[in-house]
Amino acid sequence: MDMVSVGRVHEEVGRGCSGLRSLLTVHSMVSASVHRWGEPAQQEQWLRALARGEKLGAFCLTEPDHSGSDSTAEGTTAVRDQDGWILNGRKKWITGGQVADVFMVFATTGAGTSTFLVESDRPGVRVTPLPHVMGTTASMLAEIEFTDVRLEPSALLGPQGWAAGTVMTNALDLGRYSVACGSVGIIRAAIEACAAYTSVRSAGGVLLRDLPHVRQMMSGMVTARDAARLLCEKAGALKDAGDPATIMATWVAKYHASTSAVRIAGDAVQIHGANGFSPDYPVARLYRDSKVTEVIEGSTQVQELTIAAEAYREVAQ
Q: What is the pTM of this model?
């Protein structure tokens, strides 16, 4: 499937449930990494099962004792011995961690950061569900603890110490792309919810849809949706063309789409009034889920630093 189409799939899933989209995000990150960096034996072991959904993957990078945005702060270690590797450490806020069959784990080795494929049922792997979260509650978050987990040499994905600039970069780029497209889905869902609500709800004998300020808010929603989708399509087209400019295009798409989703979801709650805080209407969930998109796969503040740095680099050329 071309990447523009992949983006549309993630948009559509995000329109229905951002938590489920998060599961699709990390599963895609693992699958794509094995497809690109895996040895033939690893691909044979995992790719068909991942593609069919017979096995589910999770991306294990964030650590409980380090900033989530600092991907270089790795407390998890993998030490080589005569039989392979011994893995120790903890990962937290792992999407799909409760249900994944294989974890793609980033750990520090003697040569730098390396990536390992670790089955969830390995001795020494402990999964602790994290059920009480504000948004994307369907994303099956977990904390994963690795205690003297023994791995065969074949568990290493890509060359040792190679992960930070290659496997991690490509996986996170795909993750940002998925979140950006999923944010477009959130905006779509907010528009649909508001169109339905304002068409039956009235104030002072006038349908909400006929109030000028409601129409102004709806116009902003539609414009934000279309702009965010176009940015996502640009990033996807650059990926299909193999153009490295896709990295920055994806940062921009994710920044615009996620911040727009938060703003639009807030407007949707405002239009619904007190009902917007009720579980009887979808906009409260959309509001909670939208905020998550500003934190994961590169926070809004990190994106602002990155995008601004690129602007200064372009001017200096």
A: 0.93
